[in-house]
Amino acid sequence: MVIESKCRQCGTQMNIQASEYRKSKSKIFFCCEKCYYEYKDENPKTKIQLHIKQSCSCATCGKEIRCNKANLHKNKLCSKECKDIFMAKNFSGENNGNWNSILVHCKYCGKEKYVKANKFIEYKKHFCDTKCMGKWQSENLSGENSPRWIKDRSKLKDHKRIELYSDPEYKKLRCKIHKRDRKICHFCGEKHVNVCLHHIEPYSINKERSLDETNIVTLCFNCHTRVHMANTVENYIYSCNLWSNFRYKNINKNTPMSINECTKRRDEYLSGSTEKCPECQSKSISHDSGCVTCQSCGWSICSI
After folding, report:
1. pLDDT tens readout for residues 269-279
2. b/e string for 127-154 if b means 16 or more Cβ within 10 A?
3. Helix H or strand E encompassing 85
4. Contact indicator for 238, 219 with CB cutoff of 8 Å
5. With helix as H, strand as E and coil as C, how does 13-45 read?
6. Cα–Cα distance between 264 and 101 in angstroms, integer?
7. Tens digits of residue pLDDT in 99-153
8. What's this model's pTM, rounded to 2 decimal places?
9. How many CB atoms lie within 10 A of CB 167?
10. Judging by DSSP bridges, how do beta strands 53-57 and 2-6 pair with one another?
């Protein structure tokens, strides 16, 4: 249905669709942008939106229709029949987005579903929706079947270690070490507000040295995390049982047992001269990109 209207500025006759006429609150229309801006300059206080429809042809039958100026680059269709014909011509066969899809069955309910080839390769199990996936996981990946299942969770908590951190003697020792090192990281040498206390000889190996001042070093958060990571220089300098689970177990003979030994090893690392290579016993050891390597035999901390 079309309603006849006039341009408010120049008075030209226009045909406006009934749906567009009903949506407009002001019932004011313009034939072009020029008339709209001229009317707005003359009446600056009026708040009127620009409703400009331009004529365009249907992508299927070629019938003339009116559409918004911003959507002229899109394919316009006059009816549902034209849309069905257009989709059948342009989005069927190889042009369809699901052309390479593979038919799979839902792991839970068995419903058929088409999945793209990349998702078929990426995922081993397929589900029709998230509800089926949640039901399948609750039946097959819960309890003892879960990969994170732990039989006795009480063994995970070391109650003696928790008591140690809440012990008033340990709190006094922590304050004493903060004053001793002035909250400066032993490795990077920077002062931080929050400093971590690192045990050179871990609590799990020797519980007697947990309150020993010569066994505790102050490290910043980044250096402390790197100490507990494998194949890092910080781990090489400040860890006692560094390579106990690796091939090169003979390096355990030279692991540090006190702060003085750690400072010596750190100074050797920073100066570029370290101890002998544990593989070939040569002194040609270099420090490149945070890793200790031997130039003669190719041994390195990162390769362990």
Report:
1. 777 655 566 66
2. bbeeebbeebeeeeeeeeeeeeeeeeee
3. helix 80-90
4. yes
5. EEEEEHHHHHHCCCCCCCCCHHHHHHHHHHCCC
6. 63
7. 778 889 999 999 998 888 878 888 888 998 999 999 998 998 888 888 767 666 5
8. 0.40
9. 13
10. unpaired
